[in-house]
UniProtKB/TrEMBL annotation:
Domain of life: Bacteria
Name assigned to this protein: Uncharacterized protein
């Protein structure tokens, strides 16, 4: 993941929003494919938590945007790795 050193904050926010969207889509897919109600609810809770987190981070807070981009990208990578196992 880029360090965003020379990246305008508006672009950092766009990456933040895109990463959140990708992870939301993945969680939604996992919720839809769940084989039990508790599993479906667990993934859906992650969708709601991600939505709330995205709304809570100010668009001008570069540090927090980058923290969440890094965390969410790692979560996506972990889910992709789990799919391959």
């Amino acid at each position: 993941m880029s360090n965003f050193e020379n990246t305008p904050t508006s672009v950092v926010y766009d990456v933040f929003a895109e990463t959140a969207g990708l992870l939301t889509a993945r969680y939604t897919s996992l919720s839809d494919a769940a084989t039990s109600e508790p599993e479906r609810e667990r993934w859906w809770a992650k969708v709601m938590e991600l939505r709330d987190t995205k709304r809570a981070v100010p668009a001008h807070d570069r540090e927090q945007l980058i923290v969440h981009i890094t965390r969410w990208a790692a979560d996506l990578k972990a889910l992709e790795s789990a799919d391959r196992d």
